[in-house]
């Protein structure tokens, strides 16, 4: 397996660890800007797109700052290999995006936009459990403390805190919108409130509240960067009772009783996701959160921007 990675931040290192575990003899190239760069063990640096022409790349991982995704995709589609794109797809939507999607389709390029929470055991259990049941209300909540996301670094200098670099809780934590779309489909109406009023004092949005309307129920999604006691829950209110999914503990409760529990955590989903990408998306050419679907989800997230 030969992989090209663009962007070597914390999320890229998670993917690299998975690749090395799945394919110990795999070759990993990193496309980096010219100039002196810190060497990373067993990562081969590239500084020019032309160097890719001589390599037999199986797929590329795009994990650089969100604001750079569009240009990176445009740079790489000429080579034709599959693209594994870290979420969110873009940091904003403009009139040129449709042309990017059209060119990818015309070139038959395989794309996948990361949505690892779809591979978490409690979420898959929930998806099966609620089938055929009458839903009255859904509440999704994700709050954590941005300064603790990347220990040892100044959080205000990271892209998450910088609006111009593509930061903002509404797209940084796009997972909640993604799994809502995955579970329930496209909403008939969306309203959104986004603010930056907390003591974090950052330029990006640090609070978002979405309301997705469906024919028989509504979904409330609340996201924030400033909660010190991290919480990531999904509550589904059924006619017969209430389901509460704790994504951090990978458990599902129904009317107060645990009906699903796993020792696996969100970190385990990265390997499950990568195996699915290789076996199903690349191997079987299954469309699963392709760039087209991810673009629809991004439009929901960026509404009212």
Note poorly predicted spans.
Answer: none
Q: What structural class should be given to the helix and strand makeup?
A: alpha/beta
Topology as H/E string? EHEEEHEHEHEHHEEEEEEEHH
For the termini, the CA-CA separation is 40 Å
Number of strands: 14
CATH superfamily of the largest domain: Dihydrodipicolinate Reductase, domain 2
Round the mean pLDDT to the nearest integer and report it. 95
Q: Largest sheet, if any? A: 8 strands, mixed
Task: Please give the count of helices.
Answer: 8
Beta fraction: 25-35%
- In total, the number of domains comes to 2
CATH architecture of the largest domain: 2-Layer Sandwich
Q: Within the CATH hierarchy, at the fold level, what is the topology of the largest domain?
A: Dihydrodipicolinate Reductase, domain 2
Pick out its properties.
Dihydrodipicolinate Reductase, domain 2, six-stranded parallel beta sheet, 14 strands, 305 residues
């Amino acid at each position: 397996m030969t992989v090209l990675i663009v962007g070597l931040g914390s999320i890229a290192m998670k993917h690299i660890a998975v690749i090395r575990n799945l394919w110990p003899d795999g070759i990993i190239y990193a496309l980096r800007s010219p100039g002196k760069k810190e060497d990373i063990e067993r990562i081969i640096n590239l500084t020019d797109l032309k160097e890719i022409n001589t390599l037999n790349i199986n797929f590329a991982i795009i994990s650089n700052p969100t604001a750079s995704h569009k240009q990176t995709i445009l740079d790489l589609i000429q080579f034709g290999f599959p693209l594994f794109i870290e979420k969110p797809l873009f940091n904003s939507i403009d009139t040129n995006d449709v042309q990017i999607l059209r060119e990818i389709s015309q070139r038959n390029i395989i794309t996948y936009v990361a949505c690892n929470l779809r591979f978490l055991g409690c979420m898959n259990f929930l998806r099966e459990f609620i089938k055929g049941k009458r839903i009255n209300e859904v509440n999704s909540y994700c709050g954590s403390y941005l300064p603790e996301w990347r220990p040892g670094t100044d959080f205000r200098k990271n892209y998450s805190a910088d609006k111009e670099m593509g930061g903002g809780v509404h797209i940084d934590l796009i997972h909640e919108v993604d799994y809502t779309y995955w579970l329930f489909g496209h909403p008939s109406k969306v309203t959104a409130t986004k603010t930056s009023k907390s003591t974090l004092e950052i330029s990006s949005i640090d609070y978002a509240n979405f309301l997705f309307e469906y024919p028989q129920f509504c979904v409330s999604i609340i996201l924030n960067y400033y909660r010190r006691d991290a919480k990531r829950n999904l509550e589904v209110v059924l006619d017969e009772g209430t389901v509460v999914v704790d994504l951090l503990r990978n458990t599902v409760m129904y009317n107060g009783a645990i009906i699903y529990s796993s020792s696996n955590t969100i970190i385990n989903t990265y390997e499950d996701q990568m195996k699915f990408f290789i076996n199903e998306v690349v191997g079987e050419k299954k469309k699963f959160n392709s760039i087209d679907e991810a673009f629809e989800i991004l439009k929901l997230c960026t509404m009212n921007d």
